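Field reference: "sequence" (input) and "structure" (output). Example, Bifunctional (P)ppGpp synthase/hydrolase SpoT:
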Amino acid sequence: MPALGIHTATATGAKVGGVALPGPGAEELTSALGYLKPADIEQIEQAYEVARAAHSGQFRKSGEPYITHPLAVAKILAEWHLDAQAMMAAILHDVVEDTPTTKSEIAKRFGKPVAELVDGVSKIDRIEFATLQHAQAENFRKMLLAMARDVRVILIKLADRLHNMRTLDAVHAEKQERVAKETLEIYAPIANRLGLSSLYYELEDLGFRYMHPTRFKVLDKALKKARGNRRDAVGKIAEQIKDRLKEFKVDAQVTGREKHISSIYKKMQEKNISFSEVFDIYGFRIIVPDVSQAYLALGALHTMYKPIPGKFKDYVAIPKANGYQSLHTTLFGPFGMPLEIQIRTADMHKVAEAGVASHWLYKADETDAKGVQLKSQWLQSLLEIQSESGDALEFLEHIKVDLFPDEVYVFSPKGKIFSLPKGATAIDFSYAVHTDVGNHCVSARINGEPVPLGTVLRNGDRIEIITDPQARPNPAWLSYVGTGKARSHIRHYLKTMQSAESAEVGELLLVQALRSLKANPDEISEAHWKGFFKGDSAKTREEVLADIGLGKRLAVVVAKMLLSKPDTHAEGGEADHHHQHLDSITIRGTEGMAVQFAPCCRPIPGDPIIAQIKKGQGLVVHTHDCPAIHPFHFDPEKWVDVQWDPAPERLFEVNVRLTAANQRGVLARLAAEISDADSNIDHIETEQKPSPAFTTIVFTVQVKSRMHLAHVFRRLRRIPEVVRISRLKRKPQ
């Protein structure tokens, strides 16, 4: 079937066998390209010819020739006045994926930038992946990274998705639901993040329509009915608003705007109300010449109807992260009907409607420079998250966190504004300031008051972060961070630190295992490791050592594999390694995550100790007499000999139980004695009193060693009221 080119297209569009040819669509596109130079239009026509030839014989599910789809996508982009390169890429966007044409052929014919844009929008070859979920995640990663380099990639992809959603009727119900879900989870939030509000609302409405078809029909019918009933009231209110603004000499355009079905549905869900209770299905938009008139209009309206407290938002002084600016207020209208009002300038309106695309749409204006800069900050953060996310699914999880649009605006001590998602905590703020601030933060002050790091931020909070170069991220932070950036930085740091620290301990364990097999660790050469890697999935020595340190591999097994080469086989290599630990591993106490001190017995330097290799946790150090070491279930394979470093560099925690006569001031004297003995109380609680004359308290003190603990005990026994004092070999309840 011959498809018509741009020049040969009939004005009406011919029909062959009942299928409309793409002629009229092509003509419509040409007429929409009036903002481009004739030379550019010519190149776009050439791209159309290539796409038409490549897609000839292909049809969409609806039965239309396939070329109608790229044409429709290009037409959407023409509404945003995108440049010629983006228009060509839109027309060619499915050519590489669905036809034999290659990226290099497009680069040769239309230039490298067009080929890069087409590549950014094309999916990765499906064959590489085991699951559809992983393939989709990898495709998002590819698309989002291409978008971080060139935002036109996402604009083409969004236009592509919009046309697919508009024509989703043609596919079966299961695919409709899958595509709609993906649209609501990823594409609509991206459109919102980039400030493309009209596109965002259309995607939301279409997504809702296909995700919940019955609910959509019911709401649509109710909305049409309500519109008829309320139209007169809205017209009257609009006239009253215009009259009041004239009195205040504000030159404004007033338009009534209807709420979208998806946002009405969201409101019904959030507030658990029925449709009849949603009053504000109408709002008013007021466009004024400049910012001073916007505030004047706001004042005029507040004299006319009373504002609802807490509903005023000034996005002019503090724009949203996507560059959106407007004054929002909700008023008590006639009959108690809430009126939602948006007041903005014409320039703000352009940015609000077209978002990041307004950069192309109104190139002459400089008004949106701030908006574009804000958006590019978010795109930059995508690259940071990507560099620290291991795989595509993890990356997508972080991105989803960052796509939720509700924001809080907070200030640094110097007054710099930071925009964070709703639910963000002081930790999120510390990472928003700088990665190093996040990695080393120890505490926070909000509005001058000390608060826990997990405190959720509120609009207008002033936050100060206190850091310490010795501090490091805590795994518990992952349960309450609200931004993808913070989450990916914390995970990356913990993985890196755990790997480095575990490798250190793993090396000590491997040396010990080699010696127990009568081999000299210094003689293990590169050749031994090469032989080892041939039969193993690990790629680097660090990986193997970290696995040993984390208890994922047994050191003795790795040692035997290293020694199993015939030329280096050590004498007595098969010696019984259970009892031949010739030297033990030295514990300094500063190993970090790779070495943990068991809370059941809290060992301190001077205690005889033994360590257990626990899978995924590394070495867990216990005292010899710890009740957790059950003699009947003792597996020598999983235990290693350890000893204390003669001069440990840190303080260790010990649980102490003390009984004293119940007199005033005893606790203060206990604390003073402990402090004088260069120790510190970390945790304290009282036990149930068997007798009112005595009090038993259980507390945790920090000491350097057993000698230091004995010194603390001697000082405490000098207090006459102290009756009994002992070390507690279990965790306080």
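Residues 492-644 form one domain.
Confidence is low (pLDDT under 50) at residues 1-24, 362-375, 566-582.
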